[in-house]
Amino acid sequence: MPAKRPPIPLSRERIIEAALHIADSQGLRRLTMRRLGDALQVEAMAIYHHLPRGKDALMDALAEHVTAVHAEPADSWQETARAWCRASREALREHPGVLALALTKQPKGRAAMAIREQTEQLAEGGLENAPEAVRALRAYVLGAVAVEVQQSGWAEPPGDDDEPWRPPSRGGGSTASDADFERGLNALLAGLGT
């Protein structure tokens, strides 16, 4: 008889990954502390050791996870901004289940630090009024991804637990959505540079 493997220790990272899986596969409405505990094979109360504010802290952590992106400075502020926008788009598209949180939660922790870093990089790259530019770029990316998710058919599951629900497949965007995103980004960057 094989030896029983010891349980994987509970960590904030494991909790967030399990929560992302539930939100992306079943929808944000179905993400409960009890369901999360079941997925992690722990009592729901054990989660509070890592997230003392419970579900509020979990929602903040999920929003932070998909909005705290990093990009290395490029040769120009335009290329730096382009790298940030592409990385942000990809992070949000990877986890459509928490897009609503990214749209509504105030940036905190690593997400707020990422925004400060982006602002500093664009200012150091020579862009005047970098804070306004960052706000415009973030609004563009969030709006563009929201439209992509809407067009993909991804939506919250129905309220009836008996009704089957399947999220659409995720992954790379279509050529048309990529082209639309780049066209809009180019126009925005051109406008910010004037």
From TrEMBL:
It comes from the Bacteria. Residues 152-181 are annotated as: Disordered. One of its GO terms (molecular function) is transcription cis-regulatory region binding. Gene3D superfamilies: Tetracycline Repressor, domain 2 (1.10.357.10). It holds the Pfam family TetR_C_1. Residues 32-51 bind DNA. Residues 9-69 form the HTH tetR-type domain. It comes from Planobispora rosea. InterPro entries: Homeodomain-like_sf, HTH-type_TetR-like_transc_reg, HTH_TetR, Repressor_TetR_C, Tet_transcr_reg_TetR, Tet_transcr_reg_TetR-rel_C_sf. GO terms for biological process: negative regulation of DNA-templated transcription; response to antibiotic. This is TetR family transcriptional regulator. Keywords: DNA-binding, Repressor, Transcription, Transcription regulation.
